[in-house]
Amino acid sequence: MHDNIDRLYDQRTSQRWSRRLARLLRPPEPLIGNPREFQIDAPLGRWNLYIGGAAARVDGYINLDLFPLLGVDVAANAEALPFRSAVFQRVECDAVLEHVERPELVMHEIARVLAPGGFAHIVVPFCHPFHEYPRDFRRFTPDGLRQLAGPLEVVAEGWRTGPTATLLVFILEYVKIWLPWRPARAIAHGVLGWLLFPLRYLDLVLLRTPRARQIGNHCYIWLRKSDQHADG
């Protein structure tokens, strides 16, 4: 069940020359972020929580992940956060809800640990290839995110990555489906990735159009906990 996690961690952190060379040659992600996503006033507080940071160091946050990888501060299931209520000024939950069995419990826990007046930033995929960490259960629309908000107030919502990102990631995966050998898939990903990634900047235009949502890649929502709430 966890083989894919071990493989991902090895790809990101191994000091073997082959892994270091692969990381050096890896093309840029075919995703370009929406510059308007963070244009809200949601400052960090003394305590902030990042759910699903994996092996990355996340400055200013307690990094929580399901697995005790290097860089993870707390290993726990997000469906039962091991923190007292109303402690975090800001909670980031980035591309996590598709991997959990009960996303409504995760959202309830986020509301519980969020301090009154605090903000939660949730990002989920809509049109995106299957990816296990360690499982991949579902996809979300903006309507689905609002439905999960519960008592939290919706402050802003939109698309993080747009239609071009969707097209490019599916082209890469489609080509690799035809290749039975892992080295061939790695080479194809590298060559195509470098050739195609400049097209990602088209999303800077498309994300300004309402039809971007038809095949948007990832959507986001900003939520705020009312000052009157003492707990979640």
Q: How would you portray this structure in words?
A:
Helix content is 31%, strand content 19%. It has a domain at 3-13 and 31-161 and 218-224: Vaccinia Virus protein VP39 (Rossmann fold, 3-Layer(aba) Sandwich), CATH 3.40.50. Strand 4, helix 3 and strand 5 (114-125) form a beta-alpha-beta unit. It starts with a helix and ends in an 8-residue tail after the last strand. The mean pLDDT is 89. Helix 1 (3-13) crosses helix 2 and helix 5 (163-177) runs antiparallel to helix 6. Strands 3-2-1-4-5-7-6 form a seven-stranded mixed beta sheet. By secondary structure, it is an alpha/beta fold. The longest helix is centred in the C-terminal third of the chain and has 15 residues, at 163-177. The protein contains seven helices and seven strands. It has helices spanning 3-13, 17-25, 103-113, 142-148, 163-177, 182-196, 203-206, and strands spanning 48-51, 62-65, 74-75, 88-94, 114-125, 153-161, 218-224.
Q: Report the CATH topology name of the domain at 3-13 and 31-161 and 218-224.
A: Rossmann fold
Structural class: alpha/beta
Q: State the fourth-level CATH superfamily of the domain at 3-13 and 31-161 and 218-224.
A: Vaccinia Virus protein VP39
Specify the number of helices: 7
